[in-house]
Amino acid sequence: MSNDDHLTATTTVDHTPDEVFAAITNVRDWWSENLIGATAALHDEFVFTDDCKYAGETVQEKEGIRFARFRLTEVVPGQRMVWHVVDSFMTFIDDQHEWTGTDVVFDLAATPEGTTVRFTHQGLTAAKSECFEACSRGWTFYIETSLPQLITTGTGQPIPKYV
């Protein structure tokens, strides 16, 4: 991967593109239960948060992505989904709005093995993105582990809901 390549992750599962697409739209079951909003239709908006105030911690005690607000700008069932990051705030990097204006893209392709998901976080590159390494580790886990588990077993490994 060159320093100008966008953050990517890829996985293949033995299921149809429509089944995989349905799982992707079920974001709470593979990425995070801490979402507000809808995650399936064109123009839907949702907010991801790892703000732990609800778990008895304060923002100063835990660093992470305070929030990211997404708008679904492309929804082609069984083929492609794009989340545009409308706004974001991350406490663990200097450019705390680094995700704002980026796009999270899921491209699906039928293969002899089932369906391949190519995930790209467009706008995050090794050369220009402060969160590239940490974000790459996180997205890779959710795309290559949690999402396939949701598709194949019915249970992913999302961030649990704060109480």
TrEMBL record:
Gene3D superfamilies: 3.30.530.20. Residues 15-150 form the Activator of Hsp90 ATPase homologue 1/2-like C-terminal domain. It comes from the Bacteria. Belongs to the AHA1 family. This is SRPBCC domain-containing protein. It comes from Nocardia colli.
